[in-house]
Task: structure prediction
Amino acid sequence: MSRGSSPEGTGGAGTFFECRVAAVELGALLCRIPVEGLEGPPTEIRLQQGDTGFPLDDVIAVDRSGPFPFVVEKQVKRTLRIAPSEEPWRKTVSQCLQSLHQHGPEIDARRRLLGVVATGPVRDLEELAKLAKAADRPCVDDFRVELAVTGRRGESYHRMWRHLTSTVAQLMTAPDGTGPALDVVEETAFRIARRLVVQIEPETGGATYRSLLGLLEAMVVDTQRGPGAADVFRRLTDIAAEYGPQGGVIDVRMLRDLLHARGAVLRADPPALAEVEAVRRWTERFLASPRVGRQLGGRLRLERAQQVEVLREAVGAHERVLLSGPAGAGKSALARKLAGTMHAAGGTVFALSLTERAWHTVADIGHEVGARLERALAAAPGGMRLLLVDGAEQVLTDDGALLSSLLEVLPRAEGGRWRVLAVAREQAADGVERVLGRVDGGEVHRLQMQLLDDDEVRSVLAAFPGLRRLLRSPRSARLLRHLFVVEQLVRAAGDVVLPRQVLGEEDIADWVYEGLVRCGGVRRPGGGGPDERTDVYLAMADAVIDGHAWASLRGCSGAAREGLVGDGILVRGGAEFAFAHDVHQDYAIAVRLGMSDAPDVTGVVGPRRLLRGFRLWAQMLLARTARRAPARLPAAWREITSRAHDVAGGGDVRWADVPFEALFELGESRGVLAALAAQLLDDGAVALVSAASRRLPDAEAAVPVLDFLLAQADALAPHAADAALVCTATWLLALGERTPRELVARVPGAVACWYDGGPRRAQEAACALACAAERLDDDARDLLAKIAFRHPLSVQCVVEDRRLSLPLARHEPALLARLARSFYLGHPHSQDHVDAREGVREPGWPLVSRVAREVLQRGPDPADLGPFGVLVEHAPDHGLALIGAVADAATSAVMRRGDTRAARPVSVTWPLAGSLRTYVGPHRVSAWLWAGEAGPGPVIAALAALHRWANARAGAGAALAEIVEQVLGCGESLALVSVVVDVLCQHAARIETELDPALEQPAIWLLPTTSSAMVAAVPIVVSRAGRERQEAYRLLGQRLVAEHAALPEAQLAAPGVVERQRTRDHVFRTMAALLDCAQYEQVELPDGRGRVVVNRAVRQMYAEAEETQGDLHRFVESFALAEDACRARDETDTVDVHRLFERMAVLEAALEVSPPLEGLGDLEDIRAAVAAVLVQRAAGEDGVEPWQLHWAGEQLMAAAASTPSALTSTDLVCEEQNHKAGDRSAAHILPLLLADEDLRRRTRLTAQDTSTATAAVASSDFIEVRNTLTTALTNQWTHGPCSGPADRLHTEGLAALNTMVATAGLHPPDESGNRQPYQLTSPVPTLRTSTTAILDLRLAAPAVSALHHAARTDCIHRAEADALLQALTAHDRLTWTKQSADMAKRSRPWRRAHDTITAKQALAGDRGRLEETVTAFANEPDALVDLLLSLARQATTPTQITELLTLWPGLLDRFLTSGRRCSGHLREALLPAPADGTRWPAQPTWVIITTWAKAHTGATARADHLIRILDRHQLFTSAAIALVLDVLGTDPAAVTCLSRSAVPFLQRVLTNPVLSAEPIGQHAHRLLDELAASANAEALQAQRALEEAPTLNRD
Result:
């Protein structure tokens, strides 16, 4: 429901009466009867819509059942006395005027009416209604006649007419007292009166009310089961009172839902109401379930208000929202809280969790809920509807089948759509997003569940002070951000102070076991003793290890089982138990594996499911050993790696990383890393660094590993050193200022040790050194400078990433400036020098646009880009020198190109330090300051940074003269002058003589970015000057105007300024006026608001300029008229043709009085479009005057004659698109005149006229004109049969197509490579035999389809058409592969037209043309790609599909033979996708797919295409997967580089429990593991998602 303004803010009728009127309208909506002013029943009622385009805003009735809406907007007043002095009446008329201004054409067309509703005075309202009836005349003149006649009879409504015209005249009077003409007043009042609807309603009762109650009782209300009609009307009044202040829009479905919610029972209510109620009861029980905790420790409720608000806004703005986050982060509680709030507010919510039940299908869900979900969800009340799907990570267990089915049952109709909020763990988020998006193709909005913020952590510590112990270490303090960990600690420890060793998750697991499972060794009444609870806990762990998520736990203590259930560790499902949370499951496995009688996991089925528990066990073992017997750490490491190797069976590469993950996740790992140095460096640290690059969760967790690597830098093997350099740069950049200082000190030495001097790791080395800017020594500086010299592109990240440039600017500004010069400007002797035409390097820069930033409100602030801002702020000398050098280089490059008028240099001077400096550059460079002109990104950023710095210094009180010296002293670009002038103008009140050099030079006044600033500043400068200086300024202005007037015209061109004489004169007149102190005067502001200084001469110039505003209005009207005429011509809109003609006549008259400087080209196009509309209308009906048709014929002939011929054109303009152009209108209508002889005679055109015009547009240089003509010819041929040999449509049409082909001739290239047009004298024989490309295919292409259509018609002309078509086909086969690359690229319509014809015939059973084409291109088969795709695209019927599948194997045999070289495009075209909405038979389709796949075994680059085709055919079987794996091959590097779909495909295979257990599943698993081992980021993410699967055999 959309919202409008509120009556509280806008005033209006009494609340009760307005709601009663609205209730009457709502009753009509419910009964489907008309309201006052509408001929049909309304489809929606709007309330309080003043800010959405309805000036009379109280109640609006809309009928959208027709082709366009009918609207009655009504203003409601309890009383409405009609007199010019009555304020309610004046306000109502003012609102009518506003509506007339906004919706005039709709009001005049009677599609929008103006209504007033009031109780009285009855006499006034009745007379006003009589006036409205009398004014219902076609025009005001007819109404004047009516007034004259009725005036003699003494009709009472004349008084209303006087009141209306007087009120309109008063409201239209300008503030200065200037009133409108009488004719204008009467015309406006008439337009209001004839569309006025007057409605008299009593405050209670009344005939309308009684009639409505009768209709409600007879048609709508079910009085047997609910309240009667009067009660329903009261409920309608309540709805109006509720939704009126909100600016509501109510349709009939929504109204019925609102009445249902208020207890009304209506007839024809859906039978599913009982099922809707079942869904409601299920949701209430689900949201109230204690399974999701709402308080920590039973006493602290974390409201997560900010998270809830973000989630609420997301659900309100998007249909599909995915909330993801780590396990135990509070996602479910947050989502359920929002759902509960919406449910309590009256919204419709269906909430469920996919992981809390063993559901397989939607029917299973419906059975447990007690409703058929498809019916229940469709019948749910309107308003906000939300489906909350918790536990969406269940998609990892069935490849999203259940979630997809659930989404499929949601209603799709507009007005009944549901919003979906899915909640999933972050490892499964990508999979859930794919499922959400693929059901209806909608966008999925993702939200990441945030960790606890600082305020929330403080609340936790205040409530549970025992947790403060965790703050002593940064790593353990991170645990306080995780809600689930905090919850477990609180439940285990309560207020007890935690032991000092609690640092990591291994300690949490240990503490949960001791404190929560064993209750600290104390028997809990009714909850079992410590040993009994341990037995239950470990028995459940054994069940999970054996592969069972649920277990009966027979033989275990009943009290202990129930105690663990009560403590939230286990859950009960019937007679079986399971772990309540995956984290508890992992903790139990870890504890079990650490016992002396731990089960042997080497033989379990699917050991990968135990990976998290195994890792935790390893962490616990390392932590305990480090605390109790550090000397035994190497032995513990050997045990961990040995067991991991045994579980892997020697072939699962994933397990090789698990010991290192345990090492990385330790709460305190520094000492363990040091104790294991010998073991970790045994292979040169290759395994350690490889695992770190893949498995470290974040930069903070990497600190101990980074410390170890930096300390052991010289002990790393070359491969490990290379990877360590990458990791170091990545981690340091992520850590930023949080990097420990002792680590920073060791970075330079390690980089020098690891970096080999080549380009491969130059960027990483530069980044790492930049991160250590505060601790660089001379050797490190030299190394960074050498990298910049030898590999300048590698330092781009250093100079442009603020995280790196800022520390360099602080600690090494000279080095940063040197790096920036190397990158932006290059070195003359560098192998990687800067292109002289560009001046500066800018690879990867964002588009820096003033429009994007200031108008569209997007894009970065240029001053924040690059190193310029930070460098000039921290080291001004270095920053200014760099900015000046960059500006000069870019300016010089623009001047060197010199290929446009805008590049002509302008020279200005400025006195600096006793000498006169010259600044040059084209006008365009001055606009770089504001990103108002396209230019190099770095120079725009540099100037923006310079401007910000200079402006800040001036604002801080620095001397303006000093700032001028600094800015202009850093370079010689004209852009620097624009910076200085703007900064001075912004501080005009402090200027003495600093701006004088700019005032004395007209070239500066004419710079695009300085003129407006100087206009604002000069009055301040002049007014503050002494008398002597004021006189000097006045004389300066006179001198500048005189010098300008004396200049010859050739010197007056000012690039970048509108080049009209009057504009130049205006600039210089403004300069002189502003510099003349005698022109200034003080003017009193109205209402005592003070005085202001104005310039009389400037004000006079502005007044003169206002007189020319009519140009703008005429431009707007001509634009609108052209659009309306073209829509009517193209039959995409219906317009009043007479009104269209009148508008054109008015525009012509206006342009005669004041012709536009650009000429009448647009008017000629408008004339042609209007002429086309007149001819079309005359062909279908009467009503067009003969003289108008004659005029139309003349305009169309003139338009046709105006199109440039392809034979004489010298410009490559043929691809221009302009649907408003006159020749397009002529081409659209000429075939109609050829087909309708009577119509042609009525336009007074001769047969020769139409023949000549048709030939002209057929030879047009514009492709769009030719396309328009052939489309119109084809349409006319389709609608009318041929009358014989002399049929003008067919004879002239074929002649036009011959002309079209003949005028597309092109000579061979001349010495300069240019091809000149010429006319083919005999197209058919020439094209059949010529082996040289002699056609401009772009110009000939429109004829192909038209000739094909003509050759298939049943008339005598078909032979001629077929002959020309065959000639074009022969020329295509002879020359297509010989076309220039540019012609082939621009000739897709030609290729598409031939291929469409060939495919259509082949699918119809005629393969002759196909065979000829394939044979012709046998040596250049790439030319067949579009034909192959067209064959598949056009096969939409069963017969065509059968024909396609019959001929396709032959094509495969021909082109996929061994040894034949084919492009990738052709190979993919040989395995096409079916047309949308079609299904191919399984058996022949499978034959084609297997043939193609076997021909591409090991061709990794083709795998993505095979996956797409299999998905289109919905083939996801073992055999299909095997084909994909064969095509992917076994090389992980190739898969990473050549396939984007491989990892998602492998993940789909492995989330399917049936497929993952088969041999192809093992194959897929190996490939995914190898990809992850090669550091493929996507594979690593998929691997983590699979490992985080939420449940194990839950059913």
